[in-house]
Amino acid sequence: MGDQMRFIVEKLNGEPFRKNYNLISFDSLESLQLLQLLSDVLGEIDPKHAVDIREELPEQTAKRMLNLLGILKYKPPGSVSDLSAFRQGLVTGSKPVIHPVLHWLLQRTSELKKRAYLARFLVKLEVPAEFLQDDAVADMNKQYEELMEAFKNLHKECEQLKTSGLSTAEIRRDISAMEEEKDQLVKRVEHLKRRVETVQNHQRMLEIARQLRSEKEREESLAQQKQEQKSQLFHAEQRLQRAQLQLKEMQDAVADSKPESLMKKLEEELNFHSYLVTEKLPQELESQKALEYLLQKVVAEPAMTQSDLRALESEINEVNAQINQLTEKRIMKYEPTDSKFSMYRQQASIMSRKKEAKAEELQAAKEEMSSLERQLQQKSSQAHELGGSEVLTEDEFKQYVNKLRSKNTLHKKKRLEIAEITAECGILQRTEELLRQRHEAIQQQLEAIEEKKGISGYSYTQEELERVSAVKSEMDEMKGQTLEHMSEMVKKLNAGIETKRASLAPVLKELRQLRQKCQELTQECDEKKIQYDSCAAGLESNRSALEQEVKGLLEECAQEESNYRYINCMKRSLEVQLQRAKEEMKACVSPDPQQRRKALREQYTRMILEQENLGKKLREKQKVVRENHGPNMQQLKMWQDFEQLMECKRECFQKQQNQAAIGQVIQEGGKDRLVL
């Protein structure tokens, strides 16, 4: 607790709090001041919580703090029963509750700031299921979830960009390259504009191209929506098929069953589960516990040698032989008088084993069925991803054929309607083109008349004036409405202020009295604090002396414990060495030649003899190599000379062949000239 309070005081005295506390002044804070301090720390993490707790009710303060601590994933110490005590302590401002919260918050302030920022956008609003039945609410909820996912992706990209370490020089180079590309694109656009301006009706063509691009974008968005709708329809059909299968199975089960059979089936399931819970699972648990105990015992024991293992095996064989003898004696003793009971016992044991085997088979079959169901779901999802569909039953296939027939007739009707609409659309397009041509001709005539009269641009100016006057009238009307609305709001605010003043008058009177009491209590508190400081200083000095003494004793205890462990390890190693020496002496003294061969001395003598024989062989081989070294080197030099000679012959032969080929080509060229 002392280290915790020191850490809290150190953090509160630093930026951005600057509280100027010491251990005594922090420990003497009242519950209301502690709650305000906790609210200030929470306000530093989330600015929405930077409020004065005197302006809100204690229940509201506790609820606000609990909500934010839940968002920040604070886990109070203790079990579930302590949660109510934690809430109560947070409401009353208890020190054992507030101090751990402050310590946890001040340890990870930067991390919690980030978590609080993300919680503003990622804490999902729970919408009741009955409200989601409305299409508008469902669409709004879906859009809300999509925006939340988009925010997650953008935040991840932002964090990746922060940690990617892009330098400003690279960004500047990218910006300069983009500006150059922008200048080139602007020049190309201007060049294309100059080329297009010479073409007749270029404005109309540009408008048509713009419309075409917008229609293509709309077509792409519609295709995407169509694909999404198809996938949603497929998932909905799958859910419907599963629900229909479940309904059919339940209907068949209900139609073929009676209350007695249902009760019998439930009793069988209950008996099976009760058998698993009361007999099978406890036995398995006990066996696992026993195995765990044995393994822990084996791990705790020191390492065993081969002789220890042999001794244990012999002991196990002896115990098994004794068990067999005792069982035979027991059978011989009780068999004449208890033959019937022994037969029943055997039958009961056989039935219990059969029961256990059937239970295990049933459990394995259930696990296999669940795994097959998971595989079926995986295969259906893979088939959907590859563009396939689920296997249909006979009734579903008939329904599918009937649906196809109805769709075929509907398709033929729609095709006829589309043909009529396309014909009508062609007529309307031709009519529109004729009307546009007439409009252009009339517009040209009007412009010519305006030029003759000396008022060119009159019609365009008239249209602009009418449009501007209409916009001005709308703006005037909106201004009048806003002024009326503002005047109403001012009246309402004034009325609210007056009511608040009237209601706050008695509260202000009480506040003056409370301030006087507060001054008296602060004087008394200062006197008590002086007394407390003097007492705490004496206790602090005594505590520090005791801490030093305890620290020295702990270090001495740790040193003695390490010495004890070292001596114990040395003792074990010496015992092992002594045991090996005893075994070696026993093997050396033993009259059995097999035992003597196992002794280390015999093994080392054999190894020494083998190495000596190997050294003799290697020395003889070295002598042979030295004797044959001179002739072998001469033979090697002769082979190298022979290889050089053959290489020279090969090069001479290649040169001769190349010269012969060149002479033949020259002769053929001369013959061609003579022929010409």
Automatic annotation (TrEMBL):
Source species, domain of life: Eukaryota
One GO CC term, this protein: ciliary basal body
Record organism: Pitta sordida (Hooded pitta)
One Gene Ontology molecular-function label: tubulin binding
Coiled coil: 137-253, 309-382, 504-563
Record protein name field: Intraflagellar transport protein 81 homolog
Family per record: Belongs to the IFT81 family.
Keyword set includes Coiled coil: yes
Keyword Cytoplasm: yes
Main location: cytoplasm
Keywords linked to the UniProt accession: Acetylation, Cell projection, Cilium, Cilium biogenesis/degradation, Coiled coil, Cytoplasm, Cytoskeleton, Differentiation, Phosphoprotein, Spermatogenesis
InterPro entries per record: IFT81 (IPR029600), IFT81_CH (IPR041146), IFT81_N_sf (IPR043016)
Compartments (UniProt record): Cytoplasm, Cytoskeleton, Cilium basal body
Sequence ranges assigned to domain IFT81 calponin homology in this UniProt record: 3-126
GO BP annotation list: cell differentiation; cilium assembly; intraciliary transport; spermatogenesis
Role, per record: Component of the intraflagellar transport (IFT) complex B: together with IFT74, forms a tubulin-binding module that specifically mediates transport of tubulin within the cilium. Binds tubulin via its CH (calponin-homology)-like region. Required for ciliogenesis. Required for proper regulation of SHH signaling. Plays an important role during spermatogenesis by modulating the assembly and elongation of the sperm flagella.
Taxonomic classification: Eukaryota, Metazoa, Chordata, Craniata, Vertebrata
